[in-house]
Amino acid sequence: MMFETQNFVKIAKRENNKKRNYLVVNALQGKHIPVKPSEAFSMFKELALKIKERYQDEKLLFIGFAETATAIGAAVASYCDTWYMHTTRETLENVKYIYFSEQHSHATEQKLVQDDIDKIKDTIDRIIFVEDEVTTGKTILNIIDILNKLYPQIKKYAVASLLNGMNDESIDVYKKRKIDLNYIVKTNHESYTQIAQQYAGDGMYITLDQLKAVGNIQYKMISINGCIDARRMVEIKQYNETIKKLFADIKKEICFAQYKSVLVLGTEEFMYPSFVVAEKIEKMALKVRFHATTRSPIEVSTEEMYPLHTRYELESLYDKKRKTFIYDLYKYDCVIVITDASKAKTQGLDTLLAALSVSGNKEIYVVQWL
Q1: Residues 35, 81, 236, 64: is their CA dihedral positive or negative?
Q2: What does the H/E/C string look like for the chain?
Q3: Are 344 and 370 in contact (CB under 8 A)?
Q4: Do 288 and 264 form a contact (C-beta atoms < 8 A)?
Q5: Among candidates 297, 355, 358, which has minimal Cα distance to 323?
Q6: HSE of 103 in the Cβ direction (CA atoms, 13 Å)?
Q7: Residue 161: CB partners within 8 Å, gap ≥ 6?
Q8: Which of 176, 145, 179 is nearest to 159 (CA)?
Q9: Judging by DSSP bridges, how do beta strands 334-339 and 364-369 pair with one another?
Q10: pLDDT tens digits, residue range 153-205?
Q11: CA gap 186, 102 in Å, rounded
């Protein structure tokens, strides 16, 4: 399938980020912009097929980057039937971490669970890092340098991304180090700073205080056991089997026949399981959209060409002190929030429910996967 760049590559304006004033928003990746699940998975599959063909005789570990590429990484790993884990900014108990920094980000600290890589260090041929877009490639080089020292037996590395915005100089660095670059679309960032500057940033900003004043919102909480956390390394086939069971359990609780349109929301790093559930609901011949809450503070604007128009400021379901955001909510017959945040009953959830309510949604389910 050919993906026309102008149809899904959008330039947004970062809020108060002096490192880089723009953000490339991929309208098909299912993070900031509501997307039809089947269209997103079609793009993920195209990337996966490139990888599968190129490395068909190798044992691979895919590592997705939090938070934007967690679903992309898991989807690509699924088509290749291999090991998967993603970086995280959350804190897990009783694990040893590998720490590194993410260039240009609003939240720079990234980490990987070292204990899990230790288990398979002698059995894999290559580690493939999965991103939504690679701009300079410096973040990935940082972690490869760290991994080279820890795991000299792992000789091969590669990158898989939906978009690649690297300039010739950055690409040459990768060529010299024999790190393969795999991507679907090449982007050119030369004009992106100027494009971002021209937007007025005059969209609708709904603040935390406004949402806290909304009051109690009616919703149904559904708790389902069996969660597998991809912040820890997972065998992708087993991961997908548990998500199938998650969907089966959700179907027991929600009568989809009464709805025509459904929004499924993921939360921050937790995207792939809810994305898969959204795709399965779409196959039931319903109009389904998926996107997720995010740490990214992006300006919104009224211009028609601008990708994001309304911003809701939230408390994180994972940490009440952390601000998160959701963009461009619309009215649906039914909204299903799927999260692995264990404290969702008491922290952060009220603001997300309020955002859904003020955008016209009345039938809301919150699925806690525990």
Answers
A1: negative
A2: CCCCHHHHEEEEEECCCCCCCEEEEECCCCCCCCECHHHHHHHHHHHHHHHHHHCCCCCEEEEECCCCCHHHHHHHHHHHCCEEEECECCCCCCCCEEEEECCCCCCCEEEEEHHHHHHHCCCCCEEEEEEEEECCCHHHHHHHHHHHHHCCCCCEEEEEEEEECCCHHHHHHHHHCCCEEEEEEECCCCCHHHHHHCCCCCCEEECHHHHHCCCCCCCEEEEECCCCCCCCCEEHHHHHHHHHHHHHHHHHHCCHHHCCEEEEEEECCECHHHHHHHHHHHCCCCEEEEEEEECCCECCCCCCCCCCCEEEEEECCCCCCCEEEEECCCCCCEEEEEECCCCCCCCCHHHHHHHHHHCCCCCEEEEEEC
A3: no
A4: yes
A5: 297
A6: 12
A7: 47, 69, 130, 131, 132, 133, 134, 181, 182, 183, 184
A8: 179
A9: parallel
A10: 999 999 999 999 999 999 999 999 999 999 999 999 999 999 999 999 999 99
A11: 21
Nearest by Cα to 370 from 233, 259, 264, 229? 229
Distance of alpha carbon 239 from alpha carbon 292, whole angstroms: 20
pTM: 0.96
d(CA 178, CA 159): 11
Tell me what the mean pLDDT of segment 234-254 comes to.
98
What's the pLDDT score for residue 213?
Answer: 94
196, with CB counted inside 10 A (0-12, 13-18, 19+), is buried
Average pLDDT in the 93-119 region? 83
Cα separation, 275 vs 40, whole angstroms: 9
User: How many Å apart are CA 322 and CA 128, to the nearest integer?
Assistant: 30
Q: Is the pLDDT of residue 321 over 80?
A: yes
Closest-CA residue to 360 (of 205, 222, 217, 255) = 217
Q: How far apart are CA 62 and CA 83, in angstroms?
A: 6
In this structure, of 12-26, 193-207, 259-273, the range with the lowest mean pLDDT score is 12-26
Q: Residue 59 in contact with residue 124, Cβ under 8 Å? A: yes
Looking at the predicted structure, is the pLDDT value of residue 211 above 60? Answer: yes
